[in-house]
Design a protein that fits this description.
The chain starts with a helix and ends with a helix. The chain is 32% helix and 14% strand. The chain has 442 residues and is an alpha/beta fold. The strands form 4 sheets. It has an 8-stranded parallel beta barrel with strand order 3-6-8-11-12-13-14-15. Strands 7-9-10 form a 3-stranded mixed β-sheet, with helices on one face.
Length: 442
Amino acid sequence: MNSSSVNLLLSAYNCSNKLEINNCFNEKIFHSIGCYKNKKWIANILPFELLKLNIKQAIDLIATLSESEIFFEFFPPEIQTPNYGDNWGRFANYIEINNRAISQMQNNKSCCGIINMIKLLPAIPPSAKSWANCIILSQIFPNIYGDGYTKAINIENSIYGIKLNCGYSANVIDYCLEDKIKSEEQLRAFNLLAHFRGIKTGFRTVISADQIKVVYPQYEENFNWNNEKHVELYINEHAKLVKLGFEAIFVDSAKHIGGYEMGNYTGVGALPQYHQAQYIFHEIRSRSNCQSIAIVGEKTNDDFIRYQNLGMNAGTDFIFGDDFNEVKNLSHKMKYNRTYAPGITIENDNYEGGMTYEQRLNRIRNALFGYEFASDKLASFMQTNDIFPLRYDTNTHHIMMSNPNYSTDGTAESHIENLFTKDDGRNYNRQVGELFAHALCL
């Protein structure tokens, strides 16, 4: 993709397009071990240390960590996504970051989640020799109730209800810059910078009809899978995001498409029919002119052909990665299917607490190394909590269902500082970094 969006972003913040080496984190740089050292990222940190940077400092740091080991004084004119073939999604590590939770929160408002995601990019390990790391953003579309606003800790403001046909979430975009850089260009800039870091990107979406609203200039209406105009809008809204550089779509409640195993369905409203979902996923790929999109489904079972024929590449929650031999045996079982396989869940978006750091690290270790050959690795699924531990009185599901401001002094900086744990979180982040360091050359 043409990288002019990055320069637009710098200009919008009145920053020079000329990049400068950022050596402030030299002692925190981790690198791949075993073949070469040019895959680099920042670890042994708290997220606040990066999120307090301004956008110029963050982009300078991204340029300083260049995998090519060439420092570009100006951002390269063309950036390509890491290329792992059309079925890369079958093998990737998906790391969902709640970009609403790390947004700038002040005066009951929240915004700029995509800007803070750019600042956090240096702390996400780049892709390995044999497989990709992929960030999944929790929010792109506006949520139905209270988008752009913080709410009290005990008041629902669910990220699982979305609006279509009205742009992107005020939690995510810096709309104060809309006259200088449009929302689409802000998203494109994030994707370009992630690709420069050697990371793929995607976003979470929903398919439960009563969790979707369609917005028109004068009114809005409930989504209906039997309404052809709604289906076309759904396809086009998702294809538009792929054209902006996103390459993965995480589909909430995907297991239940076509009314399958509805006894455990926790969504609200009707789901697309099986053949309809096939059409939707096919058309998103076709209309975006990107056949390599990874379609990932929430939850799976052993009816693997069902999901593969839907056009999916991986599914969550088939096994949790506690047992190394279980992971390795599943890898061996699925090694001849290069299109679809169930994945290893470290933590899912419904997690409400209880897992120790040791258990979490063990699951990550098994997911990264549970195979005979690296080319047979299974996909894995992680949350913000698996890289940057959240404070003890919250959890992954809570910040998906609500949008609390944890500031103690009213400043946006205080929220970011208090969202995460302190010294133990730093030490945990260091240990995660050590695991990835040994995996990236495989």
